[in-house]
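Suppose you are handed a protein chain with no further information: no name, no annotation, nothing but its sequence. What can you learn? This example shows the usual starting point.
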Amino acid sequence: MHCEVASKVQCPGISTCPPTLTPTLAPSSLPSSLPSTEPTAYPTVSPTIPPVTIARDWIRSKRDAIENNVLVSYTNAGVAFPSTRYTFDGLMNGLDLMAIRGFGAGFTFNLWEGTANEWKKGILNLAAFLANAMVESIQYDSCDENNWQGVNGMYAISNSCGQEGYSYEDEECSLDFQSSCPVVSTMEVIAVNGPIGNSLPPPFQCKPGTNSAGYWDSSLGKVVTNAPYANDAGRKDIEGCCWWGRGALQTRGPCNIGKINFYLGKKGADMGRKTLYPSIDFCQFPEALCASADDKNLRWNSGLFEWAERIQRYNVDGWNYDTELNKFISEGMLSDSFITTVSRIVSRKCHIQGCSEFEVRMLDERIQNFFMIIDIFELRRLLATPNPTPIPTPRPNRPPTPKPNTITMNPTAKIQKTNPNESSSMPGKDESIISSDETQNKEPTYEPTFADGLIRLDDNAARRTSYKLAPLLIASILLSCRL
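A reasonable first move is to predict its three-dimensional structure. Written in structure tokens, the prediction is:
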């Protein structure tokens, strides 16, 4: 089968040919200059964008449901509001870059755009990513990692060095990758954003000469420094502790941030490769992920990159991500084992139960998020048939399970904005993003309503009736002519 793409798509009379869709082209121009810590331009050479945008059109058709159920943050009191740092437009921009145009590496975020059926698996891959991002960052509406581990209302300031017993600065790469960031004890960094609400610990920081950083006393609402207080790993100071999590997946440690510098930043540019951010040295300034002029894109891009580099390529002791993804699909997408294992790799960097002293934080919420997003994207229906059809289908056997204190999935409902630190107006929607109304008229992105189904069924019934009456009508005419 061959489809030629010029000003329009012309396909032979084969039902499996992709639908006629307008190509999505890369922007004709890019920012000419940015601050010194920013890239001056995107790569001049990038992969050809597939001529069809079926996966992204399907995602856009679910915009309301995603904004109302996935991109939702919570105050300390548990009140939901639309995330201001993790927006739908930001997600789509990130996918266009990290999954479609690419970032100069031999791999991308797997959306499999433009393929006949693989794009549906790409949507499932995105669902697993979002299910974890909801827990890691979106629920807090924060780019920087929050100080969330406390005992009896006391939170160690040295948690910036690592929470749950981890030492972030010691998370270096294996011998096969020699681009870990050097840990510099004199580095001073303060997180640019922290948790929303009163009586919460201050943003993370690192600086030298702090033998006793103290703790945050939530009952007093202040930092107590006259009493030594250690984190789970025994650290009381914050010297060299600049490697806390940042971005959608809370990318942390000298290894993972070093990989961003190597593939996306100054390290790769210095080696003669074209990178997205050639002027940003993420090793010298890791807070650039949250504090640079392009941080609204870096929040998503860093998470999509880590997923592509670390999760999609995970292949350890017989557990291969792509193999297990296909297995999950073939078994009907009902088992919790796939998302449980993937969440363990995200959080603990290993896949076997018991491979870490701590189990995955908020694992139940990650599982519930995953199956909720599967329902939003109608993935059981998509992956059960060759192509989606505009005919109403029954509700999934497993309804979406909201996490505690979250809203019930309702694609048309609007969340009341209650973020005290933001204005009451919602962020504007990028006009370049195709709305759900615009995409519903395309195959297979048309999303039927129950009423549409009744009209179609009534039309079909009428046709069948007319087919039955036609012979009788003809016979009646012939009889009248003879008479």
